[in-house]
Design brief:
This protein is of the alpha/beta class and 247 residues long. It has 8 helices and 7 strands, in the order βαβαβαβαβααβααβ. A 7-stranded parallel β-sheet has the order 3-2-1-4-5-6-7, sandwiched between helices. Strand 1, helix 1 and strand 2 form a beta-alpha-beta unit. Helix 1 crosses helix 8. The chain binds nicotinamide-adenine-dinucleotide (NAD). The site of nicotinamide-adenine-dinucleotide has 28 residues, from helix 1 and helix 4.
Amino acid sequence: MNRLADRVALITGGSRGIGRATADCFAAEGAAVALVDLHEDTGQEAAQAIQAQGGQAVFIQADVTDPEAMQEAAATTHDALGGLDILVNNAGITRDATVRKMTEDAFDQVIDVNLKGVYNATKAVIPYLVDQQYGRILNAASVVALYGNFGQTNYVASKAAVIGMTKTWARELGRKGITVNAVAPGFISTDMIGSVPDKVLDTFRDKTPLQRLGVPVDIANAYLFLASEEASFITGTVLSVDGGLVL
Ligand code: NAD
């Protein structure tokens, strides 16, 4: 309890799935949370659910692909919640197709959200973290960034690039008291994998030593650890949370 007391976290894609579980988990540990997402209905509902539990939460409607909107989201978080200490770059999308069938649009959309969105949100938050010489930046990578995955040229490229940015920012920002880490989830039961055929998910389950798919709180707990004081000497790392899956 209270491992994030007095901390303020901005979580992109916080209205559902892993982002929402992370917001719930951080709020339960004493953080005030800003849920930044495209979807107002689910976002407001998620923030209200945290408030109903006695937590502090706001929803901010913003698109991570819009740099100005992300700067406004960071400023609103800081003003509304009295600070800004932790960024969870969680918003992400898939537009799967084999390389032969992938459209330019599908490639660009995924790069724009999963890669440029992480850059935009981080650029917006960094001035606050540098000012106070403290911060935690947590990036959503994926196990597929480490092994590749059939039908995911765009997504794998975006997540591999996020790992590269994580290591670069860890080097650049360490002397400012800011740690930067990535989490590489395996297959987690959320809407995102709703389009993956059951047969394929069964194969992944079989290849997972722990013999199950992940659930959002598995990833939220990894973010919690990396955001907590216990992880103060960890930076530039990629933590796989995948039940031991090797693709
Ligand atoms: P999800 O689809 O359930 O939720 C993603 C959230 O991001 C949604 O609320 C969506 O509205 C939001 N979002 C999408 N585009 C946005 C934008 N442009 N601006 C703001 N918000 C936006 O996905 P999830 O499964 O919870 O995944 C969360 C993160 O974890 C993603 O980055 C994903 O790539 C990564 N991940 C997921 C899995 C998995 O198996 N589910 C595995 C590895 C990595």
